[in-house]
């Protein structure tokens, strides 16, 4: 069918050429994840450009959509409806982003509309009507001196300046000014007239990176995109990128799909941070999105961090990316001295209680030495709060609420001089008369000590030193270069002018003991991120068994060795990234039905299902296939979701491919 029709007077007439529009309709149903054809009228002909927003009548309702393309004929043998209207002639969906969104949706068994919601911000008509500024002049190519400490660092910048495609995994040195290095790499690309995109985990990293890039490329040549911007400002900046007014784009997770013109470089910093994982369908990860983008566009790719993930190591081992790592001689000159409990490298007198004490003498000595040099001390604590986890003081059974069986915790503080009683972290009820159901004891003890309790204990130990906390309630960006105790939770560590004199990493068992596939990798990443804030001559004390692999990697400052060990172990056990894996969550009946309907490749394997909750109302099944069958797994899961959507199954399931958590 041509899509053109004979019309009577008063009826709309199809456009004389390319009268059929392929529309991505914004409908969140898996079985409708395809384009639909509509007619373009002569009145809409000029405004209905590929990439614009439109409104169409779909299943009796007016819904929004995007015009993907215009063609002469429709593939559907039926009469077509006209577009209801063109919302705006602004082409907000570029062909490159449309192709990338389709690839991301296919990889994660999602729909195109799910990905486009992440890629394109809501329209702000008044902002859209205003012109974007003219592009800033091209900056000068920066010096490569900062990269000269890495054997292949200068080669990387040379390739970026020459417009050659380069893919690298960069291991930053301790105390490295990583925002400056990333700014140099991005500005090297922008100086050639191409675009660069850099994605970091949070707004504090974004602020540091923006300052470094603005210093090299100029403030008008850089734009930041993040979720904390208001709707108008966010759309204004996004439009400036889409219209080609800005070439250097910085942002957090959502910026990975930004419509940068003539993209020459994509960068992700600290790719192991869980903030890079999108919490909305189809749950893509920034690292994988940028790898896909580099593959589709030919843009260079740089993955950087103090630690290294198994996924990044796989890119190196496969030969797809090359590593940029400093020589051991250079590393030894700048790395802090790291000691673990049981390591007597700094101890003049043996401390037999060091393994059981939360703050052994070695940690106090490191702190006192830092204060003597007028430097601050950073203390990393795994949990926030006062005492976030309690247990019976006699039998050590977890202390739980009598009403809802939730975990009990101590809030800290007093009421008229009396310590506040324990409370339930689920229902909030107080528990002033705890009695252990296992042994009858009324005594409570802390299983995990939080940041507030740690700050209180250290304040008593160092009464003349100010104590500051950085965590969920208040995250500090930086602290001055004077004696102070800074207690922070992982990811909330502020920078210190000149670096910290000492870094104390407490309660390592709480991080390493988590029932999680990535527990050791994530623990080492958090430790190295904090330890990298120490001065080159600073001291790092980690309260953990020195025989453990992540502790050894920290002591030697060798994340590459640990990433290789981790990848080898996962390959042997058949876990990601050595295989492609998916989790399917739902009720027992929904999981059973889904597994019956799932058409896996012959190499596929189903593990479980296993209960996700104590009441047995939620279960999880793991599905894994060899990496070569990853596309088949995605297609099988997409078909499953489409089938369930078409027959309107009442019990939903949640599917995640390559999830951060599988256990």
UniProtKB/TrEMBL annotation:
Q: Which residues does the record give as Zn(2+) 1 binding sites?
A: 392, 395, 436, 439
Q: Name one Pfam family in it.
A: PriA_3primeBD
Which keywords describe this protein according to UniProt?
A: ATP-binding, DNA replication, DNA-binding, Hydrolase, Metal-binding, Nucleotide-binding, Primosome, Zinc
Subunit organization = Component of the replication restart primosome.
For the biological process aspect of GO, one term held by this record is: DNA replication initiation
Q: For Zn(2+) 2, which residues are the binding ones?
A: 401, 404, 424, 427
Q: Which residues form the Primosomal protein N' 3' DNA-binding domain?
A: 22-121
Q: What role is this protein assigned?
A: Initiates the restart of stalled replication forks, which reloads the replicative helicase on sites other than the origin of replication. Recognizes and binds to abandoned replication forks and remodels them to uncover a helicase loading site. Promotes assembly of the primosome at these replication forks.
Family the entry assigns: Belongs to the helicase family. PriA subfamily.
The molecular function terms in GO held by this entry are:
3'-5' DNA helicase activity; ATP binding; DNA binding; hydrolase activity; zinc ion binding
- Which cofactor names does the annotation list? Zn(2+)
InterPro entries according to UniProt: P-loop_NTPase, PriA, PriA_3primeBD, PriA_3primeBD_sf
Q: How is the cofactor bound?
A: Binds 2 zinc ions per subunit.
Q: What is this protein called?
A: Probable replication restart protein PriA
- GO cellular component terms, semicolon-separated: primosome complex
Q: What is the lineage of its organism?
A: Bacteria, Bacillati, Actinomycetota, Actinomycetes, Pseudonocardiales
